[in-house]
């Protein structure tokens, strides 16, 4: 058994109960980077039975985005949802592509110890990210660059884990600042840490809650890919259109109070894409902060990286049927 497969076996998480009864369903292992709002559409699709309606027993498996990409390329998972972290491997030649995107704005916040008042004050300090090469890592390095700092020379960038792990590293003093996602940003705010940057309010584009698939699976198992996208889109529409029900499901998923979950929902809502599909303009912008790291002067053609054709197809079908969650 490979190390990657061992990791998958250890970290597998069955969300919202066991699916051991579903012996007639096709098992579909799917990587998620953490128990994070970015993967809300997948959690809702699983909880509401949309995957089962497509004959799929979807297993949401927690693993860091970089490991998830390795698992995807190695065939240990069918899909990964790691978002912007998948761009760098593709730009370096990995045979996979983006098929669906839940969010297009970076839902990250840079929090620091109270005495640190600016991005410039991070010089010589330690900043926590989920993993090297992840979306938060790329955004941080671009931010540092805009403020005259080099992420490899002036700041110590440390991989400290996904979800709330970065907040706890900040709380423990293991890092001086951290790139936080929901709900860790709210925890940091309540604990008195200083918000240096709200990325969701910036002009950056960061793709999150994506469906990434290898070219091999897309060619060999196209019908399965279409079913997975259709069910995920239903979860997306449920989240977008049914506020109260989605807040209840999101609170169950994140294990947060109703009040906190309502705040989280409102923070997330503006970042939603249009039916899981992003325009070519947004596709191009999503590449801007990773092109240099990939060692490229110009990116490959967008169609080599993004393929929303199945998302468009199932969206049109659902609209034609008048489907509602």
Structural summary, described in words:
This protein has 325 residues and is α/β, with parallel strands linked by helices. Helices cover 42% and strands 16% of the residues. It has helices spanning 3-11, 40-47, 50-53, 65-73, 87-91, 135-146, 165-172, 184-190, 215-220, 222-241, 243-254, 258-268, 280-287, 302-305, 309-321; strands at residues 26-32, 56-62, 79-80, 96-103, 109-112, 126-129, 156-159, 177-180, 194-198, 208-214. Strands 7-6-8-5-9 form a five-stranded mixed β-sheet, with helices on both faces. Strand 6 (126-129), helix 6 and strand 7 form a beta-alpha-beta unit. The longest helix has 20 residues, at 222-241. The termini are far apart.
Write the layout of secondary structure elements.
Blueprint: H1 3-11, E1 26-32, H2 40-47, H3 50-53, E2 56-62, H4 65-73, E3 79-80, H5 87-91, E4 96-103, E5 109-112, E6 126-129, H6 135-146, E7 156-159, H7 165-172, E8 177-180, H8 184-190, E9 194-198, E10 208-214, H9 215-220, H10 222-241, H11 243-254, H12 258-268, H13 280-287, H14 302-305, H15 309-321
Helix pairs in contact: 2-10, 2-11, 10-11, 10-15, 11-12
């Amino acid at each position: 058994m490979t190390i990657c497969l061992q990791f998958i076996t250890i970290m597998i998480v069955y969300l919202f109960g066991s699916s051991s009864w579903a012996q007639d369903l096709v098992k579909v292992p799917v990587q998620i980077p953490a128990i994070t709002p970015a993967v809300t559409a997948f959690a809702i699709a699983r909880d509401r039975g949309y995957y089962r309606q497509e004959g799929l027993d979807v297993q949401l498996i927690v693993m860091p985005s970089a490991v998830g990409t390795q698992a995807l390329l190695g065939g240990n998972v069918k899909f990964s949802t790691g978002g912007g972290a998948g761009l760098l491997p593709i730009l370096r030649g990995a045979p996979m592509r983006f098929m669906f995107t839940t969010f297009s704005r970076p839902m990250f916040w840079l929090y620091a110890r109270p005495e640190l008042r600016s991005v410039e004050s991070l010089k010589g300090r330690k900043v926590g990210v989920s993993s090297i090469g992840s979306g938060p890592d790329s955004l941080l390095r671009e931010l540092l660059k805009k403020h005259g700092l080099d992420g490899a020379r002036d700041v110590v960038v440390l991989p400290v884990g996904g979800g709330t792990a970065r907040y706890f590293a900040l709380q423990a003093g293991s890092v001086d600042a951290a790139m936080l996602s929901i709900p860790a940003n709210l925890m940091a705010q309540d604990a008195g840490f200083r918000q240096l940057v709200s990325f969701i309010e910036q002009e950056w584009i960061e793709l999150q809650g994506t469906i990434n698939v290898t070219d091999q699976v897309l060619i060999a198992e196209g019908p399965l890919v279409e079913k997975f996208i259709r069910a995920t889109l239903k979860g997306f529409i449920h989240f977008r259109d049914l506020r109260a029900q989605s807040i209840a499901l999101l609170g169950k998923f994140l294990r947060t109070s109703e009040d906190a979950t309502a705040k989280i929902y409102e923070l997330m809502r503006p970042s939603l894409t249009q039916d899981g599909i992003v325009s070519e303009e947004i596709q191009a912008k999503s590449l801007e902060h990773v092109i240099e790291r990939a060692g490229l002067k110009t990116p490959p053609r967008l169609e080599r990286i993004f393929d929303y054709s199945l998302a468009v197809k199932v969206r049109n079908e659902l609209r034609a049927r008048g489907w509602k969650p």
